[in-house]
Each structure stands twice: as structure tokens, then as C-alpha cells.
């Protein structure tokens, strides 16, 4: 890859302004007194989109719901293999079209009612029959033919065709006796009446938009109660303010740190910085011409971006190596395919001949070939004769978006193309309306990548322009869809991985998504408040946004430190070992799974 021989002054200046060095503030130890309520406060910069399991897609929202409602299966925190959750065991029929799950008898809803197979059957059936209920996670049940509960502890799912993700159905199971009373699931956000009835390690007890989400330890949780009495997600629009709150002991944990913030916290005696490979990708998404399933076009994306040559030209003019070095300052890996290298079985990278490497000369040639010539002022003209300026949706709370945006301005200016950064607190509304040209994008990928692959299928498009689909950025390609269907039906892990890599190759060639980097999870917590906490994976893993609830459920308050380096009790480890044995005995595909506690546009 070619790299520029000089530091891009404007971009570097912008990056330095966005990533200030935060002074270290000394505070008194904050260990909890013996009888004091133990509150773990997590600083977050993302707003909640919904607290309904049927509607939520943002990382914060799905993380909260992961703590509130159990899934059928969980992922081992050490290496992400599938272990029992609400289901203690499962088995497929010989033709793989009928799956039977045994629901644990010791799970209880917070209102005292037993959790039964009927709750799961109702949840899945509702998603199959109500389009609003399928908004967030509908791709999981598209292939379901029927879901029944013959007994309180037996759940039976009959499929239309084989489905490789049956041990990785990452959907919250809700209490039927509560949710069957909800009228319009499309408008119900589950955020008015507290406490919310749940069966997870924490119970949702209070919420104020753009302020906080409060959860209380569930003393009846079947795996055992959390050690902290409360878990508080506190909203900070400004990252530096969140870091200052951590230094003062006002919050226990901060994630998504900039390099400068992480460096400033590294020498603080009561703060531990965790810097580990992440499960997210950081990308630039192109508006491919927003459309609905009924064929209606909408939005106002620039028509030049419908040309694949133009899209590839823009990506040839992005130096990913420079972004990793200068914006992420080494706390990231250069982007390649759609799935981060952390998931080695599915990680893909283009061949040297296929790669859209940094090559400004090639970018200019492609634009010329596409008919977008420059005028006497060196500006590229659209088909309407007007200079091209692309609007790039940018998250106002993300300094990386702003810093990368400055580089795009410089790089694309050399091609004769203008850039206007639209940095907003709310990018969702213009995004869903298709009113953008490009946008900074990012998703958390689960051990099984099916979900993040499904959001680029034609089936994920909204039914009409007025509806909300599961699509990320309106991509619809028949060849990609055919590959998606094949990987979903493939039980052989190696063959399925090969199909997933073909999907990434197709997505790469279409150039609607430019994965620029795989950022590390850079986060920090106060050791005088949190004595120990589980990372996932155990070796070099993240804390925030895990594929499960392990971090917050396992966290030990400082005054109860003791010998708890792993954060997992012996009983839980025994349960995980037993779960692994069940899977081996059943001989089923260990389906890794989708966008953990996350889904997750940020």
C-alpha cells in the first residue's frame, strides 16, 4: 500500500484537537463500605433507541436487554463456544428440520412466575407473525415454519430448511403473560413502567432518556445474583467529561477511549486500562440508492454513487494505514473484510489483485472512466454539471468520525470532490430516510456472523418507505442473497466459513462498504471500586459490549476482592463444562453467533 510522504497537516491538527491530553486528577479511594449499596456506574456516550427487545438495535440498548432477558443459549466467556442459557440442552432431528430444546426448570420471572417453553414459543411466533416484532431480529425466524411448547420445559422449532444458527439464536425471550397485553409492538418502547419483568442477571428499574439506565441485581437469577447491587449506565455526551468523572471516582468504568485519554489514565494508581482486540469494525457506508421491498425509491443520495467505479475510486483514495497510525495511533488493525480478525474462522482479506489499495492515481482514472471529469477549477462535475460535494453522516459524540472526516476532505479534494461532514447527535433519522451520501458505520460482530451478514440482504429492506427494516444501508444484491441462503443452510463449519468469506468478497467488490479499521476495545475502570471483572475472551478480551452478560454479572466490588481473578464462580465453570459436554454429545454444529449484546449501529 502506498502511503503519503508527509503528515496531512489539517487532518493531523484536527485529530490533535479532538484527542486532548486529559490531566490526571487524584482522588481518595472509593472502596465500598460493608453495608453500603454497591453501585457499578458505567459511562456511555450512546443514547438508547428502544428498550423493547423487538425494536432495539443500538449497542447500549441491546446490552441492557441482554442483562434483562435470557437467551436460549450463551457463549462461554473464555473462548465463545456455545453453552446452556435458558435451554439446558438441545438436539436436532436426523433431517435437521426439527430442533427440540429443554427449558431449565429453575428460571423465574421477577414477578414470581415460572419461565416456561411457552414464553419462548410466544416470542418466536410473535416475530413470525407481526412485522413490528420482527424489526430488530426478524432474520432469525424467517426460516421457522412452526414453534410449539408441548410441555412447560420442552420447546420445539420446526424449520422450512436446515438452519446452521439454531444454537445461536441471540434473541431475548420475553414473558408471554406481560407482552401479550401490549397492543402495538411497533410503538411500545418498554420504558414507562418499572420495574420491567425480566429473568436476566439484572432487572431494569429506571430510565431517563439521554441521562441514565438503572438496573438492579436480580437475586433470583438462576446462575446466581450479581455481586453489585446496582448497575447504572450514565450518559455523557462529551468523552473528556466521562474520563474526568472516572478520575474523580464518580463513575466506575469508561469505554471507547481515545489514545490520548488512555495514555493519560495509564499511570493512575487506581485505574486499570484494558486495551484488547475488539469485535467491531469501523467503516464508511455508501448510500446505494435507498429503496423499500415494494420497489419504491426514496431518499436523496447522490446519483453518482450508483456507479461502482465511483465507489471504488473513493475507496482507492482512503489510506487505511495512515488512519490506523494517525487517528487510532496503533490502537486498531487496518481494515480488510467485513468480519474482524478476532473471529479467525470467518476472517477474510482480499487478494493483492482485488484489494482497493490506497492509489490516488487509480482513483482519478476510475472517475474519468465513469464520465466525471474536472472543470477548469479542478472540481469534478456531476451529470447535472454541478461540482460534486458528498455529505458524510458523522456521529457528533465520536472523535474518530471527525478526525477521519478531515482526512477524507484532504484526500478527496485532490480528486476534485468536496466533502461536507454532517456531525449530528441523531444520525438515525436521516439514515433511515436515506438522506445521506455516505456515513460512518460500525457494528459489533458476534462469534457467529449471521446477523451482521443478514442486514445486507434484500429481505432486510423496509417493507415501504414509511417502515423501518433491519437493513444497514439499503444494500440489495441477488448474488449476495444467494450466498447468504447457502451459508445459513450449511452445517459443516468449514464449508460454511468458505461461503461466509465469499459473501465478504462480494460485499467488498460492490464497494458499498469500506471497512477502514478494526478498533481495539480501549476502556478503563477504577480498581478501588471494581476488584475484578471478566474479559471476553479471557485472554486479551473486551469488557463492554460482550457476547453475553459476563462482565457486569461477574464484577466484584473492591471491598470483596479476595481471590477472584477470573470473576467466575466454581459453580458457573462447572455449568459451562457440562454445557460443553452436552454439545459434544449431541454432535450439533457449534454455531457461533451474531452481534452480541449489540447489534449495534454506532
From TrEMBL:
Compartment list: Cell envelope
GO molecular function: peptide transmembrane transporter activity
Principal localisation: other
Membership in a protein family: Belongs to the bacterial solute-binding protein 5 family.
GO CC annotation terms, alphabetical: ATP-binding cassette (ABC) transporter complex; cell envelope; periplasmic space
Keywords from the UniProt entry: Membrane, Signal, Transmembrane, Transmembrane helix, Transport
UniProt GO BP: peptide transport
Species: Streptomyces roseirectus
Keyword Transmembrane among UniProt keywords: yes
Gene3D superfamilies, A to Z: Dipeptide-binding Protein, Domain 3, Periplasmic binding protein-like II
Keyword Signal part of the UniProt annotation: yes
Range of residues in the leader sequence: 1-33
Residue ranges occupied by any Solute-binding protein family domain in the UniProt entry: 82-454
Segments traversing the membrane: 571-592
Top-rank taxon: Bacteria
Protein name (Swiss-Prot/TrEMBL): ABC transporter substrate-binding protein
Amino acid at each position: 500500500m502506498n502511503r503519503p510522504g508527509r503528515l496531512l497537516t489539517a487532518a493531523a491538527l484536527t485529530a490533535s484537537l479532538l484527542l486532548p491530553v486529559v490531566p490526571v486528577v487524584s482522588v481518595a479511594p472509593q472502596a465500598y463500605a460493608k453495608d453500603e449499596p454497591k453501585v457499578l456506574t458505567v459511562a456511555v456516550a450512546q443514547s438508547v433507541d428502544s428498550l423493547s427487545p423487538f425494536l432495539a438495535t443500538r449497542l447500549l440498548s441491546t446490552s441492557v436487554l441482554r442483562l434483562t432477558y435470557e437467551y436460549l443459549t450463551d457463549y462461554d466467556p473464555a473462548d465463545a463456544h456455545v453453552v446452556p442459557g435458558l435451554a439446558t440442552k438441545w438436539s436436532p432431528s436426523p433431517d435437521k428440520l426439527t430442533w427440540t430444546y429443554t427449558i431449565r426448570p429453575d428460571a423465574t420471572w421477577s414477578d414470581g412466575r415460572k419461565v416456561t417453553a411457552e414464553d419462548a414459543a410466544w416470542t418466536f411466533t410473535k416475530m413470525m407473525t407481526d412485522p413490528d416484532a420482527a424489526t430488530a431480529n426478524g432474520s432469525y425466524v424467517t426460516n421457522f415454519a412452526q414453534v410449539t411448547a408441548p410441555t412447560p420445559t420442552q420447546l420445539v422449532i420446526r424449520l422450512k430448511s436446515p438452519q446452521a444458527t439454531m444454537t445461536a439464536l441471540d434473541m431475548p425471550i420475553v414473558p408471554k403473560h406481560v407482552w401479550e397485553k401490549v397492543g402495538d409492538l411497533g410503538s411500545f418502547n418498554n420504558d414507562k413502567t418499572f420495574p420491567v419483568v425480566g429473568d436476566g442477571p439484572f432487572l431494569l428499574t429506571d430510565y431517563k432518556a439521554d441521562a441514565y439506565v438503572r438496573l438492579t441485581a436480580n437475586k433470583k437469577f438462576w446462575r446466581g445474583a450479581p455481586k453489585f447491587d446496582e448497575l447504572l449506565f450514565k450518559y455523557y455526551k462529551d468523552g473528556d467529561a466521562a474520563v474526568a468523572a472516572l478520575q474523580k471516582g464518580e463513575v466506575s468504568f469508561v469505554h471507547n477511549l481515545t489514545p490520548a485519554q488512555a495514555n493519560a489514565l495509564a499511570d493512575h494508581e487506581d485505574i486499570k486500562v484494558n486495551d484488547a482486540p475488539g469485535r467491531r469494525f469501523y467503516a464508511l457506508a455508501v448510500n446505494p440508492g435507498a429503496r423499500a421491498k415494494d420497489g419504491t425509491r426514496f431518499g436523496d443520495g447522490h446519483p453518482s454513487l450508483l456507479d461502482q467505479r465511483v465507489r471504488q475510486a473513493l475507496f482507492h483514495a482512503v489510506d487505511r494505514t495512515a488512519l490506523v497510525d494517525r487517528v487510532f495511533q496503533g490502537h486498531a488493525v487496518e481494515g480488510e473484510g467485513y468480519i474482524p480478525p478476532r473471529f479467525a474462522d470467518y476472517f477474510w482479506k482480499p487478494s493483492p489483485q482485488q484489494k482497493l489499495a490506497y492509489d490516488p492515481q487509480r482513483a482519478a482514472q476510475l472517475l474519468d472512466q465513469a464520465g466525471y471529469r474536472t472543470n477548469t477549477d479542478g472540481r469534478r462535475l456531476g451529470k447535472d454539471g454541478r461540482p460534486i460535494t458528498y455529505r458524510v453522516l458523522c456521529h457528533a459524540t465520536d472523535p474518530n468520525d471527525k478526525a477521519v472526516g478531515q482526512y477524507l476532505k484532504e484526500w478527496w479534494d485532490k480528486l476534485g470532490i468536496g466533502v461536507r461532514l454532517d456531525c449530528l447527535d441523531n444520525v438515525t433519522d436521516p439514515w433511515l430516510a436515506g438522506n445521506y451520501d455516505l456515513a460512518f458505520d460500525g457494528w459489533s460482530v458476534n462469534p457467529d456472523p449471521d446477523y451482521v451478514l443478514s442486514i445486507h440482504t434484500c429481505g432486510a429492506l423496509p417493507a415501504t418507505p414509511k417502515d423501518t427494516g433491519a437493513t444497514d444501508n439499503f444494500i440489495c444484491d441477488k448474488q449476495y442473497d444467494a450466498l447468504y441462503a447457502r451459508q445459513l443452510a450449511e452445517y459443516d463449519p468449514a464449508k460454511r466459513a468458505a461461503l461466509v468469506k465469499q459473501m465478504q468478497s462480494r460485499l467488498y467488490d460492490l464497494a458499498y462498504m469500506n471497512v477502514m479499521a478494526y478498533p481495539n476495545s480501549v476502556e478503563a475502570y477504577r480498581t478501588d471500586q471494581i476488584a475484578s471483572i471478566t474479559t471476553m475472551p479471557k485472554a486479551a478480551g473486551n469488557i463492554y459490549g460482550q457476547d453475553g452478560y459476563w462482565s457486569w454479572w461477574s464484577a466484584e466490588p473492591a471491598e470483596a476482592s479476595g481471590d477472584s481473578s477470573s470473576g467466575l464462580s466454581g459453580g458457573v465453570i462447572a455449568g459451562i463444562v457440562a454445557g460443553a459436554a452436552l454439545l459434544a454429545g449431541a454432535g450439533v454444529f457449534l454455531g457461533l453467533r451474531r452481534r452480541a449484546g449489540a447489534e449495534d449501529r454506532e
